[in-house]
Amino acid sequence: MVLDARQTIDLLLAEGFLDPGSIVRDGLDATNIEGRHQNLRLSSKSGKGYIVKQDVRGRATRNALAAEAAIYDRLRAEPSLRPLVPSHTRYLPDQGLLIVSLISDAESLAARQARTGRLELRIAAKLGDALARIHALPCDGDGQEAAHGGPRALQFLFKPSLANYYDMSSANRLIGRIIQQNEELAGLADWLLMAWQPECLIHGDIRLTNCLVHPSAPNERTKQIALVDWENAGCGDPCWDIGSALCDYLLTWVHSCPITPETWPDPAKQLARIPLATMQSAISRFWTAYRRRAGIEDAGAAQGLVVRATMCCAVSILQKVHEQMKEASELTAPAVCLVQISANLAKHPEQAVATLLGLE
What global pTM score does this model have? Predict the structure, then answer.
């Protein structure tokens, strides 16, 4: 049975997550959040609250929630990783609910950048450092790919089933035709299958909305990074996480450009709210911090890793443009630009590392 907001609150009261006194004193706001599951955000004036994920699709979804809860437990068991995740989670198997505590005064990196209009270099470095620490964890022994990630889960971008095709928006059908007619883009499907190296724990869904920035301690100005939404996590290729982060920095830059068919590329680049050089500086700080934490001193090894990550970035761009166009009847100018960037990354990844990402 799917619980509505009132029933969910009653359950959390019964389980001791909430108490009537705090609700009377601090109030309680309930907000539905779009996602694969039915997600409910419960927050109060005190800053305490929870995200409640509920199974609505049967056993597969319930197993994914249980797996996400296990990932949170594993991360909190590592002292160096504990600050990177919410402090409390609990899975209720009978109800198919995953309860995740909110992080006080946290703001997603996407919201923070939209609010300030800036890419913060220190935050970029903290994100790179955090991913390297996560990737230091080996696979847990089952050898499985990320629960809902990995190369096979992304094949629909390149070779959609008939059912997937009919479910696509008109814009995404056009993207599919562009992919199939472009040698570099079409080749990403096989490249991802062959190049995928599942060697450590990965988040599997790195995007700026899943990266939270919050004070290191109450009333402190020093900021800390935390990562949420681990439902795609599992044994996977670290280049996928790195490439996904690179992708979101590229998306932030592109969406800051006033793109029209007439202004791209040069006039739009010149008028970008976030200059290309600023994006490159953020990416450089991210990559430098990752390398330092991961202990990658050999220049050749670093180059090989970032080139593979750039190829993963090309796939991640297609995935995220597909998500952005899921209700669209026509492709937007930024979407067309991003698909072209993806093709350029796939065709010349070594060149793109230097000229677009700014990594010498």
Answer: 0.93
